Amino acid sequence: MDKFTNMETFVRVVEIGSISGAADRMNIAKSAVSRRLKELEEHLNVQLFHRTTRTMHATETGTEYYKHCLRILEDLREAEEMTSQAHCVLKGPLKVAVPSTFGVLHIGPAINDFLQEHPQIEFELDFNDRQVDLIQEGYDLAIRIADLPDSTLLARKIATVRHVLCASPEYLQEHGFPESLSDLSHHQALVYSLSKDVSHWRLNTPEGKLQKVKIKPALKGSSGEFLLSAAAKGMGIAHLPTFVVHQAIREGRLEVVLPGYAFGELNAYAIYPQTRHLSRRVRTLIDFLAARFEGTPYWDK
């Protein structure tokens, strides 16, 4: 019996919750996964799982064994990685999930520069605004712009994300410049459709008081670049992050609306599961991104 292989298989089944899912992730037959689990339980003489027709849940003993397996496997990987890479370049695969617009505009160029320094890294980038399951979908890392309520994740802040209201000069000349939050309710709003509330905008007054204003969504979209284009064509007032609209504002294609009011800041984080070994490749990439976006983001300057 290969103890380490069986332990790795056991860990995958615990994390994914099924033999078939673990088999797909490990690219082996379901029968091989079942055999390894059987060998492990017979060797330990304990039941590690509560089994149903569709899912597998670790028993109390299995949960404790899982924790020990993680430590052992992580120590082994760390020892192998430090030994093999101590005098070598970084190499190997990295699967990373990034937000679509932020990823294309800023993370993508950063990855290209990272590859100039580490050309043997093999990146798989998923540009998507959905919230991926890092463990079940096999990601090494994800970049998220959020409050990160999920305590099962570890995170490192890599950038501050600010938002503004903006519209084209032509739209403002035709429909008037809002002078107060209440004026916004009379304007056409261009809304990010994945927001928690697409019927209101929440802003802090110049005095720091949080206020909510009802809006009339004239157009909704899940792409920041699409909303930028719509705003530049005079379709309405958009609520967008500065990393999307900074260039259009500099070029005069958009103007900031109610500049004295501010949206609450969000942060861009590099996140990874608590239970996942953080490889030297991942650590180096996180350090690179944090240094790249350190302090005031360059798109705000």
Automatic annotation (TrEMBL):
A Pfam family per the record: HTH_1
* Molecular function, one GO term: sequence-specific DNA binding
- InterPro entries noted in UniProt: LysR-type_TF_proteobact-type (IPR058163), LysR_HTH_N (IPR000847), LysR_subst-bd (IPR005119), WH-like_DNA-bd_sf (IPR036388), WH_DNA-bd_sf (IPR036390)
List, alphabetically, the Gene3D superfamilies matched: 3.40.190.290, Winged helix-like DNA-binding domain superfamily/Winged helix DNA-binding domain
Record key words, sorted: DNA-binding, Transcription, Transcription regulation
Q: Residues in domain HTH lysR-type?
A: 1-59
Instruction: Give TM segment ranges.
Output: none
One GO term under biological process is: DNA-templated transcription
Which family is it part of?
Belongs to the LysR transcriptional regulatory family.
Q: What's the protein called, per UniProt? A: HTH-type transcriptional regulator DmlR
User: Could you tell me which species this protein originates from?
Assistant: Grimontia marina
Q: What is the lineage of its organism?
A: Bacteria, Pseudomonadati, Pseudomonadota, Gammaproteobacteria, Vibrionales
In the UniProt record, what gene is named as encoding this protein? Answer: dmlR_12
